[in-house]
Amino acid sequence: MTMLLSHTILSAHDNKTGRYDAKRIATILAITQAEMAEIVGYSTRGLNKNPSSPRLQEKLAALVSLIGELRELLDGNMEYVLIWLKSPHPYLDKRSPLSVLKDGNLEAVQTLLHMMWTGQPA
What we know:
With 122 residues, this protein is mainly α. Helices cover 54% and strands 0% of the residues. It has one domain. Helix 1 (22-29) packs across helix 2 and helix 4 (57-73) runs parallel beside helix 7.
């Protein structure tokens, strides 16, 4: 059964609705709810009121996918994922991937991750 769910992060889901929950993902990433609100382009108040809002699902799904790919690249180690996300990277002008995500630029981090997957210098 767990193999069928290996593409997602179980603890990122709301137990009642099955949707992604922004508060749970913030906990996984060891960031504040305000930081999560920046990443998904939502107000902190709105995120607190409805962390599994249908309006958030597309962005949360992309973020969970990114975390899952990183986890796979880093031998399943979430500690390494957090270190990678919070460490400055030369490809991102010495900014951390997390800071780039907070600026709403998921695509730049996805591009970097794609480069890593394909063995391109990154």
